[in-house]
Amino acid sequence: SFQGVAVPLGAAVVLAPSFAPCMSVLKTKLSEPSAVHISSRSTLLLRGRRLLIDSLELDGALEVSVVDKASLHIRSLQVHNDGWRFDELSESVLASDVCPELLKIRGYTLRKRQQRTILIDTPGSYEVVGGELRKISQVATQLPDSADSVSIGGPLEGATPPPACGTWCSSALEIE
After folding, report:
1. Which top-rank group of organisms is this from (predicted)?
2. How does pLDDT run across 50-64, given as a tens digit for each residue?
């Protein structure tokens, strides 16, 4: 509950119009909806018209953004982190003169503890397979049976995964 109002919380999912402006387009973006699992405490943000998802297991927060001249196919990805949390504001905070009006109206604040970010900001074709970001070569995109790709992101779920708040980017791997 927030300020005495019972609020059932579930997963927070934001689908930008560039990803799925309507339900019929959303159906084409998720090849196997039964292979997409999002826990009730998760936050998912998806942007990009050329983003496809086959298999995703999310328990935490994930943001995926793909520029118009790029494509990303998430074939298999597992993300587990502390995610985002809605925290109720105490009566003393709400009564404070320094508390912004917006927060007084809401009664809560959003705490972004950890999130995984996949940012494709360089033109080209990319895929995530087994938790690894790869750039697909031009040869592979011309020959459908070819699986020629180059790893650029490293494994998310390896023996030593990157920090839960790391950012995968098509132009660089940033670890914060």
Report:
1. Eukaryota
2. 999 999 999 999 999
Kindly give, in sequence order, each residue whose CB lies less than 8 Å from that of residue 76, ignoring residues fewer than 6 positions away.
54, 55, 128, 129, 130, 131
What's the CATH fold of domain 12-85+114-174? Answer: UDP N-Acetylglucosamine Acyltransferase; domain 1 (2.160.10)
What is residue 146's three-state secondary structure?
Answer: coil
Per-domain boundaries in the chain:
12-85+114-174
Cα distance between residue 130 and residue 77, in whole Å:
6
Beta strands at 70-74 and 77-80: parallel, antiparallel or unpaired: unpaired
Could you give the CA distance from residue 139 to residue 131 in angstroms, rounded to a whole number? 23
- Cβ-contact 59, 114 below 8 angstroms: no
**What are the pLDDT digits (tens) for 96-137?**
888 889 888 888 888 899 999 999 999 999 999 988 888 887
Torsion, Cα of 149, 151, 153, 158 (10° steps): 120
DSSP bridge pairs for 111: 85
